[in-house]
Amino acid sequence: MEYALCLVLIAIGLYGVVVKKNVVKIVISLAIIEYGINVLLVLIGYRSGGCAPILEQGMTAATLAVTGVDPLPQALVLTAIMINLGMLFLMVAICIRLYERYGTFDITEMRRLKG
Amino acid sequence: MSLFAILLVLMIIGAIIAIETTNLLSSIVCVGAVGFLISIAFLFLGAPDLAITQLVVEALCLIVLIRATINRDLTSVTGDREFFGLTVTVAMILVFLVIGVKIFDDFPALGQAVMDRMANTPSSSYLARGAEQTGAKNVITALILGYRNFDALGQVAVIFCAVLGALAILRWPAKKDQKEKDSEADAV
Questions:
Q1: How many cross-chain Cβ pairs, A to B, lie less than 8 Å apart?
Q2: Domain regions of chain B by residue span
Q3: Contact B18/A at CB under 8 A
Q4: Neighbouring C-beta atoms of residue A115, cutoff 10 Å
Q5: How does pLDDT run across B25-57, given as a tens digit for each residue?
Q6: Measured on CA atoms in the order B16, B20, B22, B27, is the torsion positive or negative?
Q7: Residue range A2-47+70-109, CATH number
Q8: CB-based contact A85 B57, cutoff 8 Å
Q9: Are B139 and A69 within 8 A, CB to CB?
Q10: Any bridge partners for residue A68, and if so which?
Q11: Which of A50, A64, B42, B44 has the fewest CB atoms within 10 Å, i.e. the most exposed one?
């Protein structure tokens, strides 16, 4: 059920990207898609009752191998979060530039795509 | 209903409000709420590193998005796309949802990690031998800065390129004004 809810989050983001006309709304929808995918990946690596993959005081590596959650998706999602931050910077810069050029955030008003 | 399902339902509500509200500023605030809920979910999923990163990134996202919209036209852009395109879009998204739910039916249920079902997965060997091989107590650190260090290098390269691109886009009109001045000077 949690997987399906993540997919609903992604679908809401997709709807926003395709249907909305405001550029900032489209950027926000892309951020929502990113959130959905990140949570989905971390959920796949979850182990019920599992602890964080950190070796605590008085804990052996063998216990950690049985109780810890999957560290691989977490490491990859950490990279994905940072890359999405960079992508958001770039998209917001383009939004600011588009607003200065056309005086609106409405993508249907932006007809002259030259220059 | 599990804790994660409740958190995800709250996230979905936040996302719907963020996309459907007419005021851009409240939309940005709702996206911030979704991000902080995800941070809480990461904490309960056993990923404290991710929770901390998500908090920092969320604060930065809020600042950048508010910078994009402050002092600008905050009234909404009303009206939708044409009816046919809208119908096709919603139909395609429904197909995506149905196929996705079908695919995830075959997955092991939540809480049964994939690495328990197979022998010798990378994840289980990282957990069992990460501390011994790299000397890092935190297996995430061992992964990012040890086993998959080139991954981190690529991430830094991507962020560097994104920041360079943003700076290049933002300082573009200054050069253009200079060129216009030059051409005016030429005309005179």
A1: 267
A2: 1-73
A3: yes
A4: 5
A5: 889 999 999 999 999 999 988 888 899 999 999
A6: positive
A7: 1.10.287.3510
A8: yes
A9: no
A10: A51
A11: B44
List, for residues B82-98, the tens digit of each pLDDT value: 778 788 888 999 999 99
For A103, nearest residue in chain B (alpha carbons): B73
| For A47, nearest residue in chain B (alpha carbons) | B111
Residues of A in contact with B74 (CB under 8 A): none
Average pLDDT over residues B62-80: 72
Q: What is the pLDDT of residues A31-81, one digit of tens each?
A: 999 999 999 999 888 888 778 888 878 777 777 777 788 888 888 999 999
Q: Give ipTM to 2 decimals.
A: 0.87
> Cβ of B123 and A31 within 8 Å?
no
Nearest to A90 among B28, B96, B162 (CB): B162
Percentage of the residues of chain B whose pLDDT score is greater than 70: 85
Distance CA A39, CA A6 (A): 7
